[in-house]
Amino acid sequence: xxxxxxxxxxxxxxxxxxxxxxxxxxxxxxxxxxxxxxxxxxxxxxxxxxxxxxxxxxxxxxxxxxxxxxxxxxxxxxxxxxxxxxxxxxxxxxxxxxxxxxxxxxxxxxxxxxxxxxxxxxxxxxxxxxxxxxxxxxxxxxxxxxxxxxxxxxxxxxxxxxxxxxxxxxxxxxxxxxxxxxxxxxxxxxxxxxxxxxxxxxxxxxxxxxxxxxxxxxxxxxxxxxxxxxxxxxxxxxxxxxxxxxxxxxxxxx
Length: 254
What we know:
Distance between the termini: 29 Å
Oligomer: single chain
Structural class: alpha+beta
Helix content: 10-25%
Number of domains: 2
Shape: extended
């Protein structure tokens, strides 16, 4: 008798296939409508209005009440007598310097071997040891009742070889000033060359004291740093597998 496949098992597969076809169809229509045109640059907008933007909330120390001295022009907390021209308030612009030159190599080797042997004998059991052949095979006697042995061997090798070299300078905007004086920055830059758009995004939390005299900050002085460098366009599209291949990579068990 031929076994028919249950409709309940086919429906999820058909649903996934339909969604994949619709997504690929929409993408194909969008690409056809922009055939021969360069990718469009995103509009300049308030970073707070960007999708997924969330204000930073971090542990803060107790606020300190500023005290004023009579007949004094010095402002408590200032780093200089005259006004500091470095970024210090929401909306100010600061340059983020990203110079990453990392080289890491890690090799791990693990070897494990275990051998185990157990034997149990039943020399006497109230005189019934001679009747073991009635319950077990005739070859079983009290001297060879249980005899177990096991052997396990495991060998594992792991190797990581990573090398990164990135040099970027990007202007960012102060989007938030935390109660303890730390600043939250966010910067985004897009560069289009022919039919390829390169996008750079940086974000993080910095100390105002770490800003240099030239109004720059190094990426390694940013807490919760987020740095993204990617692109979109014809070259990026060619490097990506087709939607059908991506769907098969997800659902295929082998």
